[in-house]
Design a protein that fits this description.
alpha+beta; Heat Shock Protein 90; 2 domains; five-stranded mixed beta sheet; two-stranded antiparallel ribbon
Length: about 200
Amino acid sequence: MKHDPLQLATLIGSRICHDLASPIGAVKNGLELLHLSSENSRGPEICLIEESSENAIGQVNFFRIAFGMGSKHAELSPDRARNILFPLFNGSRVVLSWSIETNITRIEAQAIFLSILCLETAMPLGGEIHISRQKDKTTVKGSSSNFSQNPELWNSLLQPSKRHDIAPAHVHFLLLPLICQQMEKPINLDQSTENKAVYIRF
């Protein structure tokens, strides 16, 4: 029996995230026990481990949605989306805002998270990413003073049936159009040099 490549890819993503979550969670629990058992457990070394474990948990939560398999009936609330995204992006070279105030489907959340990765990749000097929706059209907008010029990456979004030589670090460019095909929504890519912005719509 032949397996669907997209299903197989998301199953692998889910498995990796699941296996990473347990040891990272154990580190976090160990730090909490250390704080309870010692008054001198707030040294710089412990703070560094604590910060790293929090960041790792955040990354796993993000990747679980971006690359994992979710229930067809699952939804993501605006608060949950912000809780996952804001700690990872805001405060770094990318500032992110989310204006969708209704629950979205798990697969739409996956498409949005992958779009965020695509725009982040294209903004080496940083910038702003804004997620919005009008009626049934979702827009992920990236604004930056400098976008990297890599036509092969953008072409992979618009021409998924063709073979593209993409590095592992850019796999999200290959996965996003497959997710949009599953939603039966075409990707629209608008690159505005005048406004220094890129719009991914689906």
